Amino acid sequence: MAGGFVGSDGGKRAAQYEGRITKYFVLTVIVASMGGSLFGYDLGVSGGVTSMDDFLRDFFPKVLKRKQEHQNETDYCKYDNQLLTLFTSSLYFAALVSTFGASHLTRVKGRRASILFAATSFFLGAVVNAGAVNILMLIIGRILLGIGIGFGNQSVPLYLSEMAPAKHRGAVNQLFQFTTCFFIVVANIINYFTANIHPWGWRLSVGLAALPASLMFLGGLMVPETPNSLVEQGRLEEARTVLMKIRGTDNIEAEFADLKEASEAARAVKHPFRNLLQRKNRPQLIIGALGIPAFQQLTGNNSILFYAPVIFQSLGFGSGTALYSSIITSGMLAIAPFVSMVLVDRVGRRAMFIEAGIQMIIAMATVAGVLATKFGHGQMLPKADGIVLVIMTCLFCLAYGWSWGPLGWLVPSEIFPLETRSAGQSMVVCVNMLFTAAIAQCFLAALCHLKYGIFILFVGLIIIMTLFIIFLLPETKRVPIEEMHFLWESHPVWRKVVLTEQERLERGQKY
């Protein structure tokens, strides 16, 4: 189980931190959180576009032919086409690779530089996709979008966590998830209306991705660099000025001293990725860089988001009804972050992970049960059962939306020390995008071959990840970001890893 708050030797300086929530701080983090709009808009728009007949006619006529042959039937394999799924997954493979470049830019030039680069690349990708006349142009556009998401997802969560005071860090970081979810809803609504604009409605859907990119670029020009990054770059006076401005007080010496000490340690590290492998960073590596970002995708939520209209049509829903149902489910995701913002710094990260895990298991198991007993190949799914599926999907999305969605970005962004923070966040994005791409590429084939068994598989994975949280994640709420290492030293599992036997003996820790 989780250990205590901090060890007895640390945390004294954190008690001296002062500050309040200023209007400047609020404006800054709201503007910066627009980085989530890139990821959200793409998640929402991709599935809707791939279900549009005009889009399929231009690029995937074989899929359209099969869809029309089974228009009013349930068919697990209706959209099983690897080239079609490559349209979705190519973006995430590009994001996976680009995040390593983002790590270098974020560390050397700052978080703002990565935010601006992300917006520019995403804008170009939107333009290319809107004008695409062949599959090659589609893939090139998706790659540019992916580069933008790789840089944005690497820098924005870091930016929000570093700007926020410890006691409000959870709620502030949730803004990234909120903008992500909000733009999923926006994209689904746009798809709902553009589906009736023939034959170019799909171009409008993908082209409007330029709008969140433009908002993010303008926001990146407005916001200041984080004090942590400014200190890391040796710009101490600028860092002091920004810190005083966002905290609303001149008495920032305790927090500033922690930033300088962390920066000195960071400058001593020449190879941050190699440093991640050191014994003292093993908990951050396993929990933050590997476990949480992988499990975030293995919940199955993004599969539902990618292909919600496709899934609902495969289960016999009409085209308009499928898009409408996807608006409802994505709307649940937009509501859920508000719950998380209110509770995350009160009840803590662990409790929200565990409760949501139980809710997601029940919802997904119910979906599997309905499909196993009522879903017949070539037959219409009964209306009552279709309603049950939509309700269970909404409950699943709500649970994900206040747990693995936002906390999957929050916890990794707050547990890495400054010297490995950029590298660590790159690993987070890399692993996240690797599993996102794999799920996007394989889900429709898995749905075709495993049928309702794919949802049983997700149930088993959610059970595993909930146990992972129970036994390995300490509670991080209200722990200052530069003093997170004390958690590992007092945790019943991780203290055996990060402390040598001699250090444990000196601290009187017995096993």
Automatic annotation (TrEMBL):
Keywords: Membrane, Sugar transport, Symport, Transmembrane, Transmembrane helix, Transport. InterPro entries: MFS_dom, MFS_STP/MST-like_plant, MFS_sugar_transport-like, MFS_trans_sf, STP/PLT_plant, Sugar/inositol_transpt, Sugar_transporter_CS. It is found in: Membrane. One of its GO terms (molecular function) is monosaccharide transmembrane transporter activity. Its main location: membrane. One of its GO terms (cellular component) is membrane. PROSITE patterns: MFS (PS50850), SUGAR_TRANSPORT_1 (PS00216), SUGAR_TRANSPORT_2 (PS00217). The chain crosses the membrane at residues 21-41, 83-102, 114-133, 139-160, 172-194, 200-223, 285-310, 322-344, 356-375, 387-411, 423-446, 452-473. It is a multi-pass membrane protein. Residues 28-477 form the Major facilitator superfamily (MFS) profile domain. It comes from the Eukaryota. NCBIfam families: SP. Belongs to the major facilitator superfamily. Sugar transporter (TC 2.A.1.1) family. This is Major facilitator superfamily (MFS) profile domain-containing protein.
